[in-house]
Each structure stands twice: as structure tokens, then as C-alpha cells.
Design brief:
This protein has 256 residues and is α/β, with parallel strands linked by helices. The chain has a single domain (5-255), classed as Aldolase class I (TIM Barrel, Alpha-Beta Barrel), CATH 3.20.20.70. It has helices at residues 16-30, 47-53, 81-86, 97-103, 107-120, 132-136, 140-155, 181-196, 200-205, 219-223, 240-255; strands at residues 5-9, 37-41, 59-63, 91-94, 123-128, 164-167, 208-210, 230-233. The chain has an 8-stranded parallel sheet. α5 crosses α7 (140-155). The longest helix has 16 residues, at 140-155. The chain starts with a strand and ends with a helix. The relative contact order is 0.16.
Length: 256
């Protein structure tokens, strides 16, 4: 059985005081949740602080992006995978829709970053998803297939045992609109089936999170779906009570 995984993406939010308060709340409220994996991904400036403050807890720490360059060098403003390794990060979010849409990251660039993370032993949280226009035009599956194919072509399907996939319908991120459990399950099943056609054993093991306006009041129904293995949580991860409630919903599903 796959172990549910809930990760918080703090995006560009935080201050030293805010991060400390949030970490204290997370540490207190999630320590008994041993049936699931939990991580938070703060802005890079607060990774070191978060790792220190969450020491001894069940919550692991990740980053939100890495440079496409493998080594250190003259890349002003970038953060290398080696730096994340040095900071003892466990995860890194790659291919988030905001990186694709705002910063123009391509499938090929994202695949290169996934390969770098795998080489460093850091687990990529690899995001895929469609816009509202792509969903309404009937190209959703082909769009997601292309995103997956870029990584499959780069690292091979067997490496997906070490990759977390996060399905994020772009139209449901930060909008308050959530895909229905049935809609989300349909896409998760499509993703798993696509991998299964290449390697069924890998497909059965891969964690596929749902990301798109997950809240305490809808988490349980989403996580109860057969192919949804937790969530990549945005806004709700900035509130310790809300994030803990979402984690508890995953814990309850895992314990059932």
C-alpha cells in the first residue's frame, strides 16, 4: 500500500517571525501522524531556519525550485541542487504551473531539473496539469502526457519510483475552485495507467498527489480516492491548523 504524502508549498510567503510561529504549530500538531509522510517547502531564504526549527519532528523540508545548471558558477540569483543537498533538503518542487506560466519553463527544462534532483538523491515533486482552456478543448490528456513523456524520456520510467507526481489542475490553483473528487481521480488514474503501460510495478508504487485548493473541508473526500495519495497544498499550508487538519485527513485514510 502506498503511504500518503502531504507537502506544503509556501510559495513567496514568510518572514522570520511568521516561519517560527508556523513551524511551532506544525511540530506540535503533526508529531503523532506516523502513517503518512509530511513535508513543507518554504522560500529558499527560510529553508535553514525551517530545518532547524522542525528538528526532531516528523516534518521534512524541501525547496520550491532549482537551477538547471548542475554545478556552481556565474548564475546570479540561482540555487543549485548541490546547495539544497548541502542544506539537507529532502524534496524539491519542480514544474509547478507558476514556474511554467510566469517564468516560461519548458517540459525539457523541467525534465533536466528532475534528472539533477535524482542524481543528488533529492526527491522531485514533479508537477503536471492542464489549464482551463486545455481541459475544455479536450487536450487535457495529451498535455499531461507530454509533460510526463519529457521526464520519462530523460530519466526512464523506472526512476519514477523515486519521483512524486503532483497533479495540479491550473484552473484550481489559488482560485478556491477545486476539481471534484471524481474529476481528480480520473486524471490520477490516467497518469497511473500511462506509467503502467510502461512498467506496472513502478506505476503501482508511485505517489501521485493532488494539488488545487485543497482545504480541511474537502481533503478527506479527495484523499479517499483510489489513486490520490495525498496533496501538494498551497494557501492552506500557511496556517498550521488548516495544514494539520489536511494531514489528519490523510492519516485517517491511511489508518482506515
Amino acid at each position: 500500500m502506498r503511504k500518503p504524502f502531504v507537502a506544503g508549498n509556501w510559495k513567496m510567503h514568510g518572514s522570520k517571525a511568521f516561519v517560527t510561529e508556523l513551524n511551532q504549530g506544525l511540530k506540535q500538531q503533526t508529531n503523532s501522524m506516523t502513517e503518512i509522510d509530511i513535508a513543507v517547502c518554504p522560500p529558499a531564504l527560510y529553508i535553514s531556519q525551517t530545518i532547524a526549527e522542525l528538528e526532531g519532528s516528523t516534518v521534512k523540508v524541501g525547496a520550491q525550485n532549482i537551477a538547471e545548471e548542475a554545478s556552481q558558477g556565474a548564475f546570479t540569483g540561482e540555487i543549485s541542487i548541490a546547495m539544497l543537498k548541502d542544506m539537507q533538503c529532502d524534496y524539491v518542487i519542480l514544474g509547478h504551473s507558476e514556474r511554467r506560466a510566469i517564468y516560461g519553463e519548458t517540459d525539457e527544462q523541467i525534465a533536466n531539473k528532475v534528472a539533477l534532483a535524482l542524481e543528488a538523491g533529492i526527491t522531485p515533486i514533479f508537477c503536471v496539469g492542464e489549464t482551463l482552456e486545455e481541459r475544455e478543448s479536450g487536450t487535457m490528456e495529451s498535455v499531461i502526457a507530454m509533460q510526463l513523456d519529457a521526464v520519462i524520456s530523460k530519466v526512464g520510467v523506472e526512476e519514477f519510483e523515486k519521483i512524486v507526481i503532483a497533479y495540479e489542475p491550473v484552473w484550481a490553483i489559488g482560485t478556491g475552485v477545486t476539481a471534484s473528487p471524481e474529476q481528480a481521480q480520473e486524471v490520477h488514474a490516467f497518469i497511473r495507467d500511462k506509467l503502467a503501460r510502461l512498467n506496472r510495478a513502478v506505476a503501482e508504487k508511485v505517489i501521485i498527489q493532488y494539488g488545487g485548493s485543497v482545504k480541511p473541508n474537502n481533503a478527506a473526500e479527495l484523499f479517499a480516492q483510489a489513486d490520490i495519495d495525498g496533496g501538494l497544498i498551497g494557501g492552506a499550508s500557511l496556517n498550521a491548523d488548516d495544514f494539520a487538519a489536511i494531514c489528519q485527513a490523510a492519516q485517517d485514510v491511511a489508518s482506515a
